Task: structure prediction
Amino acid sequence: MYPVDVDGFLVRPSQHATVIPKTMAKAFRDKEKEYKAPPDDRIYCRACSTFIAAKIDAAGRVKCNKCECQHCSKCGDKWFEMRGHVCRSRDEQDAFKGLEQGKDYQICPSQR
Result:
């Protein structure tokens, strides 16, 4: 879990650079950046689900570092250069619109 807590002490990779591999320290910093962003402001790649950026930190288009797909920093939708981009309303993005919670879908208990 984040932040990493060992017996009441927060673990920071920068404090243990001699024993934590650089790849692990980078992964920790990436997750730290993701978890600091409010869940509704996180932009994830629609192709590979990698966290890209927080909406408040991004402007215009953002590119996934893993698969290089481009996304709109305002709505998070994929950016298609050939046909331009128009942000959809929240209602258009809502995959659960018209469905009944408890009957048609469930919310994961750990996400409440």
Notes: The mean pLDDT is 79.
